[in-house]
Design a protein that fits this description.
With 329 residues, the chain is α/β, with parallel strands linked by helices. Helix content is 35%, strand content 26%. The strands form 3 sheets. The chain has a 7-stranded mixed sheet with strand order 3-2-1-4-5-6-7, with helices on both faces. A 5-stranded mixed sheet has the order 14-13-12-16-15, sandwiched between helices. A 4-stranded mixed sheet has the order 8-11-10-9, covered by helices on one side.
Length: 329
């Protein structure tokens, strides 16, 4: 977790330095104190907050909680993407997670800060206060994508009300405490498939384990790649995709790069010689061999990136896509 710490007084800066050192983070203090304390200074709280918001995973304000609230208020958007925000008083008595307590790790960070200061973490999220299973934390810790936020809220509400919530998994992941592997009206299902699921109301949690092998003609637009991928993933959960792979001839392909960037998935590229070294039975193409030096790009790239082929090559509008699944646990 990349942590940005800010303090506003000498006492706060001393504590801030201790916290930043322990967390491997950065510290900023007012410019008037920077030279005296040997720290980097800031001239505008608003500018510092906006930059830290976009660059860091967590923001720690050493000072009054109200300062933190006012500073981040214009930037708050979504609990699944906002960074964690924690306020710590200058005496280190209380660490208060203000934002993204679960998915962003704010609650966990507050507990860590309290350990460092000898103070107390003021965690207020309902599932934590009541000792209930928190589906968003559990999913985040295991690299699972929540496919329906409304159902995720319904799971938490049901548990808080003492109702039974079921659990099923297509992966080797045992039932967490607080859920049941029996029948239930509402349940959680760990799967990379898109299907109705084993419960009348099913929250699908998708392991990020699918690899897209992609080949395309030069100049193929992003939208054409997106359509081809959608077709190849038919019946599979797009949120389960963890990365894409191709030949190194496509490492600067604008449409492919735009596709990966817009979906925040990394792109791995391999030389023709490396692709030839992939083990398995692949769909050959003389045309592809003539252009690239290897008989198949998409299937070989998907396997070479660490997966087992589960969808062979599909072709559409000059784009070829294959899907592999990597070992998730």
């Amino acid at each position: 977790m990349k942590t940005a710490v800010i303090a506003f007084t000498r006492r706060g800066a001393a504590l801030g330095r201790k916290l930043a050192d322990a967390l491997g983070g950065s510290l900023r203090v007012p410019e008037r104190l920077a030279g005296e304390m040997g720290e980097e200074g800031f001239s505008s709280l608003d500018q510092w907050t906006r930059r830290a918001w976009s660059e860091a995973d967590a923001l720690v304000f050493v000072g009054a909680a109200g300062i933190a609230v006012r500073a981040v208020a214009p930037l708050v958007r979504d609990k699944f993407t906002d960074p964690a925000v924690v306020s710590v008083d200058e005496a280190g008595r209380f660490a208060v997670p203000l934002l993204s307590g679960h998915v962003g790790g704010g609650n966990r960070l507050a507990l860590r800060l309290a350990e460092l200061t000898g103070g107390q973490a003021a965690v207020s999220t309902a599932t934590d206060v009541n000792g209930c299973f928190a589906v968003d934390v559990w999913a985040c810790d295991r690299g699972l994508a929540i496919t329906d936020r409304g159902l995720a809220k319904a799971v938490s509400a049901a548990l808080l009300e003492g109702r039974t919530v079921g659990y099923a998994s297509e992966e080797p992941l045992s039932c967490p405490q607080g859920l049941t592997d029996g029948a239930a009206e509402l349940g959680v299902w760990v799967t990379c498939r898109k299907a109705e699921g084993p419960f009348p109301r099913t929250l699908r949690l998708a392991p990020r384990c699918l690899i897209l092998g992609i080949g395309c003609r030069r100049g193929t637009p992003e939208q054409a790649i997106a359509v081809a991928v959608e077709r190849a993933l038919d019946g599979l959960e797009p949120a389960a995709v963890c990365r894409a792979a191709s030949i190194d001839l496509k490492q600067d392909e604008p449409g492919l790069l735009a596709f990966c960037q817009s979906r925040q998935i990394p792109l791995s590229v391999y030389s023709a010689q490396q692709l030839l070294g992939a083990e398995g039975d692949f769909t050959p193409s003389d045309f592809v061999r003539t252009v690239t030096g290897v008989d198949n790009v998409c299937e070989r790239a998907a396997v070479l990136a660490g997966g087992e082929l589960i969808r062979r090559k599909t072709a559409r509008s000059g784009v070829t896509v294959a899907v592999a699944k990597e070992r998730w646990l």
